[in-house]
UniProtKB/TrEMBL annotation:
Reactions catalysed, as given in the entry: a ribonucleoside 5'-diphosphate + ATP = a ribonucleoside 5'-triphosphate + ADP; a 2'-deoxyribonucleoside 5'-diphosphate + ATP = a 2'-deoxyribonucleoside 5'-triphosphate + ADP
Family: Belongs to the NDK family.
Claim: Kinase is one of the keywords in the record: yes
The name this protein goes by in its record: Nucleoside diphosphate kinase
Cofactor: Mg(2+)
Sequence positions that bind ATP: K11, F59, R87, T93, R104, N114
Gene: ndk
């Protein structure tokens, strides 16, 4: 059964450039309710585990370096059809291919540093949310 939650990270580049407020404003204006949220920094082991599905890819080392170089904003978001609607809001993985008005089109520099994460399935939304938050941190 489809759930109504997704998981997101505002990645280190978005935090470094001061885009937290603008991105959260866009997320809220698009009808997502914040269920959980914190500023945190992933360790190398965290990033390797979170992105384990990509560990054979040529960009894996760079991805781990990037995701651990500074703080991120981790959040769980609630909305009808949350996973799919949030993927639409963030746009394509490569900002060069992202639709006008999407978060990646507005704020991402490159495919490697693409500003924001969005879960790609309901199962992964639950796994990724639980990776970052305990039950007492979800509201
Ligand atoms: P998404 O974040 O859109 O779900 P993904 O799951 O395929 O994309 O990849 C995870 C992250 O890995 C992505 O946000 C940025 C990085 N990445 C993906 N493809 C890449 C590539 N060809 N070169 C560099 N980094 C890449
Ligand atoms: Mg993905």
């Amino acid at each position: 059964m489809a759930t109504n939650r997704t998981f997101t990270m505002l990645k280190p580049d978005a935090v470094e450039k001061g885009h937290i407020g603008a991105i959260l404003e866009k997320i809220s204006a698009s009808g997502f309710r914040i269920v959980a949220m914190k500023l945190t920094q992933m360790t190398k082991a965290d990033a390797q585990a979170f992105y384990a599905i990509h560990n054979e890819r040529p960009f894996f080392g760079e991805l781990v370096e990037y995701m651990t170089r500074g703080p991120i904003v981790a959040a769980i978001l609630e909305k009808d059809n949350a996973v799919e609607d949030f993927r639409t809001l963030i746009g394509a993985t490569n900002p060069a291919d992202a639709a006008e008005g999407t978060i990646r089109k507005l704020y991402a520099a490159s495919i490697g540093e693409n500003a924001v994460h969005g879960s790609d399935s309901d199962d992964n939304a639950a796994i990724e949310g639980a990776f970052h938050f305990s039950g007492r941190e979800m509201f």
